[in-house]
C-alpha cells in the first residue's frame, strides 16, 4: 500500500475515534432531516437548478448541494431497509404483520462527531446502518475503506457524491441470535405477508421518507378492528388497495397516482418515483416494469447511490430535443478478464523481462480501449508509453511508424527526468554511440531535446532521409541501442502498435529485435489487429513464430462482442435508466449489433435521430416502443449507418472529413491551415470545428487531429470521389 493510502487509512481511523454511534427512530430521523433542510422549500427544490441570478448563484449552489445530500441520505436509508427485508427469511424473521414493514419499526444508525450539540447531530451524522426494531436485526452500511482512501488520494471526494456501498448484518448483535423454535412459535397461526403486499408496504416507506409524514393516499379506507388477526387484516387491506391507489397504476401512469404526485411536489427525483410506481405495479400485479423480488429493489437503490448524477438526480433540459444520451465513452464494458490479463502481463515485465501481448478482434470491439486502461498504470510506476497506429493508406514507408513512436519517447524522457539525471543520460548516450550519435539524432530528431550538443552533431551527418539510406537491419539495431539505455525494470517502455493488419514484416522485425534482446532492454509490446482481416501468411504470424523461437513470453487474446448482460449495462448507462427497464431495448440492439461496442453506440444514436428513441420531459426518462423498432427496417451495417449520418452534415464538415480520410489516421494543424488558404478547401477550418462538436474528430495528445474511430474514417473515405482521392494523396 502506498504511503498516501496508509496516511489516509490512519486519518480515517483517527476520525472514527472522534465519532460516536447513535440510533434514531426512523420517524424522528425524517423529522430531523427535514428540519435541517427547512430553508429549502418544496417548490424551491424543483426549481433550484433553474436559478440564474448571479447574485444568488453561490447560495443556490449551496442549497442544491444540501438538497442532493439529503436525497442521498434518504435513499441510503431506503437501501438499508430493502436489504434488511431481503435478509429476513434467511435469518428466520417472519414478516407476518404489516407493521413490520413500516417506518415505526425501523431506526437509523448514524455516526456523530463527539462534541457536537444535539441540534447539530442530524445534519452532521452520516447514515451508517438501519435497525429493524421488532426483530432486533441491524445492518451496517459502509463504503469499503480502501475506496475512501483512493477517493481522498485522487482529490475527488468533495466533488463526487456517489459511493459504492456494502451492507452487512451485525453478527455481534445478541438480538440476531434468533432461535428457530421461538420464531416458529411466534409465527404460529399467522400468515407471512405476500411478496406483492410487501412491495406495497415498502412503497409506503418510500413515500413517507420524502413527504414529511404526509398520509399515504387512500389510507382512510383502511379501517379495521384492532383485534382482527393480522393475516385477515392484510388480505382485506390488500384488496382495498387494489380498488384504490394501486388500481391507478397501469392506467394513467405515475402522473395519475396520488402518492407519487405528493412525492413530486416535495421534490422527489423521477427515478425514485419510478421505483415506487414499479413497486405498486407489483402490488397490483399489472405487469409493466413491476419488481419481481425485493432483491431487485435493493439493486436499483444501490445503483442510485453509486452513480446519483446519472441515475438518481433529474436531468433538466429546455426541451426533449436538447437532451443528450449519457454515454460512458471511456468505460470498458465486459472486459474484466482481459483487463486483468494484460495488467498481470505488464507486472511481469516490471521484473526485468520483455514480453508481448497480442489482441485480436473485429473493428469496434474495444481493443484500443483495453490497452488504454493500462497506460495510466504504466505511467504511475515510472514507465513510458509510446504508440503508433498503422493505416491502409500510409504503407509506403513501413519503418516510419516505429521510428515515430520511439521519437515520442525522447520528449517524454526530457519532461520526466531531472536536469542531473538528464545530463547523465546524455553523457551515456554520447559515450555509447560515439561517432554514431549524429546518426541517431538524424533518425530521432527529438533526441536533440536531451542535449543541445546533439543538434550540432546531427548537422554533421549528410542531409537526406537517414532511415532510407540505412537498411532496415541497421535501423533496428540503432533503435535497440537507444532503447537499451533508456529502459529498465523501473522505467519499462510500453510500445503499442495499433492495427497490425496493415503493418509489414519490416516494421514487425524491429519489434522482434526489441523483444529478443538479452542485454538489458525492458519492453512491453502490445499489438492489436483485426483478426477477421488477417490471412494465413501475414507478417503477424511470422512475428509470433519468431518470438516463440526466441523464447519471448507471448500472450494472445481475442475480443468478441459483449454478452447481453454487459450490453444492457452499456445501454442502461447511456439512458440513465435501471438496467431491468432497458432489457427490451437491449435485446433488439444485441440482435442488430452482435454486441460490438462501437456499433452499439452508433445504433442507439440512429434510433434517437429517427425518433424511435425519445426523451419524455414529463416522465423525465427515455422512452421507446420495442415493437415499433422491430418493425422498422434498420440496417445492421455500421458503415451504412455512419455514411447516412455523414451525408446529413454540412458541406464544410463533409469536406473536412473527406480531406482527413485521405491523409490517414491523423492530420496536423499545419495541413488544415495550408489547405484553408486555397479557395477549393477554404471551408475546412470551419468544418474542423463542426466535426469536433459533432463527435467525429478529436485532438490527440500529440496536437494533431484524428478520427474518433477507424470506421468513421473508413466511411468518410468511401464518400470521397476517386478524383479527389488522387489529388489529396
Explain what the structure shows.
The protein is an alpha/beta fold and 729 residues long. The protein is built from 33 helices and 15 strands. The strands form four sheets. A five-stranded antiparallel beta sheet has the order 1-2-3-4-5. β3 and β4 form a beta hairpin. α21 packs parallel to α22 (505-515), α22 (505-515) runs parallel beside α23 and α25 (579-593) packs across α26 (597-609). It is elongated. It starts with a helix and ends with a helix. 38% of the residues are buried. Residues 1-9, 40-53, 116-124, 149-158, 174-189, 219-252 and 464-468 have low confidence and may be disordered.
Kindly, what is the distance between the CA atoms of the first and last residues, rounded to a whole number of angstroms?
53 Å
Shape: elongated
* Assembly state: single chain
Task: Round the Cα radius of gyration to an integer and report it.
Answer: 32 Å
Q: What structural class is derived from the secondary structure elements? A: alpha/beta
- Pick out the low-confidence regions: 1-9, 40-53, 116-124, 149-158, 174-189, 219-252, 464-468
